[in-house]
Design goal:
Blueprint: H1 21-30, H2 32-40, E1 58-62, H3 69-85, E2 89-93, H4 100-107, E3 115-120, H5 122-125, H6 127-130, H7 138-141, E4 142-151, E5 153-157, H8 166-175, E6 181-184, H9 190-202, E7 207-210, H10 214-223, E8 228-232, H11 233-241, E9 246-250, E10 279-286, H12 291-306, H13 308-316, E11 320-324, H14 329-346
Parallel strand pairs: 1-2, 1-3, 6-7, 6-8
Antiparallel strand pairs: 3-10, 4-10, 4-11, 5-8, 5-9
Length: about 350
Amino acid sequence: MKSVRMDAGRPPSETAAAPDERALSRRYMLTGLGVAAAVATGMRPGVGGAQGISSRPARIIVPFVPGAAVDFVARLLATPLSAEWGKTVIVENRTGGRTLIAADAVAHSEPDGDTLLLCLDDTFTIVPHLSKPGAADPIKALVPIGLIATIPTALVVTPSLPVDSIPTLIAYARSNPTALSYGSSGSGSLQHLAMELLKAQANINMVHVPYRGLAPAQTAVIAGEVQTAILGIGSSRSMIEAGRLRAIAIAAGARDRIKSMPDVPTTGELGFPRVDATSRLMLAGPIKMSDEVIGRIHNAVSRALAGPDTRRQIEARDIVPTNLGPKPVAEIERISRANAEAVRIAGIEPE
């Protein structure tokens, strides 16, 4: 993969090899009190300091195509944020480079809150582990503002496969060691890593077939081209309800089942807590963004997510508002450590 530079404000000798988690925590902890104060005061836009709201349009840059779940949430947020800030909020799609093209655009923008990145946490918790030293480093170029929602996923199988649970899938794989293959949205994707962890823990074999996105992977499972995959519930639930896919588990480390599929157990409930392909929607900005601006944006997004119509539309897509932030460093570090281990188990070489 061609490296995308996001090195503004750091020495040329610094590299993006495994992030120094203690340094990351220390940097964010030093500013934590300022963020907490901003949140506690419920600071309104343009109030409390020199860095108020500019008259320029604001941008939410999304590293996915229009219509994708992240793009959908960005456009839902744009309307209430535009009303609160009194100016246009534009959603801009910049795809490619494992989300680093979009991340780079935000990293090199002014840290005034007018340019934000809405992405999946993969940008922070997987991409750095897939890149060689000297490549793009989102952790050093961007500051997380909050984890605002989660997208639950389901482990599904083609209906012709005679399995209806993870235990029967494992038993089938052991009896038929060359029969199973699984699809994903690509090498190094969250779904790929989760399936490799399942293979390692269960000591089974399944051949990985990468596709250019989850939509073609879903089509492949329906057609029986591959036998299983982990898919977003929002995009696959209608196929599950129609009997064209069979959901055998929710790919989540937690034991709590999800509301839209209460009869389907989680992987955590079944004894596979590391098999977690929950996607987390993350808001971020340039690394030099002040605590005041971070607090203002977090408060505005919190109010937008609390709006009943916004929340209803988000939940209708099987997306769960969480609004964890600002600066959810501990959670990001936890996920990053888990994904680093998954990359190692999957045998993925940095590019």
